[in-house]
Amino acid sequence: MAQEMVRQKQMLGFDISKKGDQRCFLDLSIGHTNLGRVTFVLYSHLTPRTANNFVHLCKGDMGNGRYTGLPLAYRGTQIHRVIKEFCLQGGDFERGDGTGGESIYPENPMGKFGDEPHGLQLRHMRKGLLTMSNSARNANGSQFIVTMKAIPVMDGKHVVFGHVESGMEVLDQVQSVPTDRINAGEGGTVPKDKPLRTHTVTVVDCGELPPVGSKDKGKNKKEKVGGKGLKRKASVKDAKHRKRKSTKKSKRDGSSSSGSSSDSSSSSSSS
């Protein structure tokens, strides 16, 4: 029942993330040009294993994979598949062509792990969703997909485990790079939607960010706002103080002036 409510919320366009859900970032470049940062919110409360897999691959802190023998990390990998107004695919740190990679979980000799039911029930209903790429059911490794439109054909087959929080303008630039599809048919080549070598899309850095609703993140915001608020309060207080001081001075001056007048008057009388 609870999952159905989550699904309905997603269908209505609501943010289904919760406090404590993990967050990550990817810094991307095209060729030698840095594009910027893309941040993701992961649905850890619905897909904890899938989210955890993505987090540790972003952090690169799990050593080498048992299956590939390579570092379990996204840093330095490529977005190897780009289909404009459809999807972007990355995470293959083994071969870089969509046929390799492995997860952080050693339970399967091929480095794969199972689908999480809650993630399978979510719909690929809009642009900017983060979902797992797989070759079959229960065959999740390290590869991921970011949707660039609604893709209902993926529903029930791929685990949705997050969404783009910021940096969609970066992904829009990525989806516009030229790919091998422009050379389709030449010499019998079959396009794989791989960016041309002159426009290689690389993950130059990646890592974990404070979770949704974290005290650290909130504290920074409060300090920033609070700082401005304190300055405002201080300036108002100073203004009031200056006004009181000015009023007192005026009264003193008035009193002094009145005293002088009185002295003068009495002096005149006595003469």
Task: Provide a compact summary of the structure.
The protein contains 5 helices and 8 strands, in the order H-E-E-H-E-E-H-E-E-E-H-E-H. The chain is α+β, with helices and mostly antiparallel strands. The longest helix is centred in the C-terminal third of the chain and has 56 residues, at 215-270.
How does this structure look, described?
With 271 residues, the chain is α+β, with helices and mostly antiparallel strands. It is built from 5 helices and 8 strands. β5 and β6 form a beta hairpin. It is globular, with a radius of gyration of 31 Å. The C terminus is likely disordered.
Task: Map the helices and strands.
Elements lengths: L1 H10 L11 E8 L2 E10 L5 H12 L19 E5 L3 E4 L26 H5 L7 E6 L5 E8 L12 E7 L1 H7 L26 E9 L5 H56 L1
Antiparallel strand pairs: 1-2, 1-8, 2-7, 3-4, 4-6, 5-6, 5-7
Distance between the termini: 105 Å
What class, by secondary structure content?
A: alpha+beta
Strand content: 15-25%
The dominant shape is: globular
- Overall average residue pLDDT: 83
Q: State the helix count.
A: 5
How do the strands line up in the largest sheet?
3-4-6-5-7-2-1-8
The total strand number stands at 8
Radius of gyration: 31 Å
How much helical structure, as a percent, in the residues?
Answer: 25-40%
What's the helix-strand series? HEEHEEHEEEHEH
Uncertain stretches of 5 or more adjacent residues: 218-237, 260-271
Major sheet: size, sense and barrel closure?
8 strands, antiparallel
